[in-house]
Amino acid sequence: MDDTNLEDRLNELVKEFGEAANPQHKKLASLADEAQADRKKLEKSINSLQESLDYLRVCIKYQLFDLEATRRENEYLRKLLESDGD
C-alpha cells in the first residue's frame, strides 16, 4: 500500500467514525454543557453562602463587642453605686 492510498483509507475511516459517533458526540456535548451550567450555578450558590457566612461572622463579632462593652459599663456603674452607698 502506498502512502496516498493509506492516507485516503484513513480519511475514510475518520469520516465513518465521525459520522457514527456524531449522535453520541452531540449527547456528550449537551451533557457537558449541562454540567458546566450546573457547576456555574453551584459556584454562584457557594459564593452567596460564603458572603452570608462572612456577614454572620461580622454580626457575631459586633454582638460580642457589644456584650463586652455592656459588661464593662455594668461593672463601672456597680462600682459607682457601691462608692455612693459608702
Describe this structure in words.
The structure is a single chain. The protein is mainly alpha-helical. It contains one helix and no strands. It starts with a helix and ends with a helix. The mean pLDDT is 85. The radius of gyration is 36 Å and the shape is rod-shaped.
- Low-confidence stretches are none
Q: Describe the biggest sheet? A: none
Secondary-structure-derived class: mainly alpha
Mean pLDDT: 85
Helix content class: over 70%
Cα-to-Cα separation, first versus last residue: 117 Å
SSE string:
H
- Indicate the multimeric state: single chain
Percentage of β-strand residues: under 5%
Radius of gyration (CA) equals 36 Å
Q: What is the overall silhouette?
A: rod-shaped
How many DSSP H or I helices?
Answer: 1
Question: What's this entry about, in short?
Answer:
The protein contains one helix and no strands.
Task: Provide key terms for this protein.
86 residues; mainly alpha; 0% strand; rod-shaped
Topology:
Elements: H1 3-85
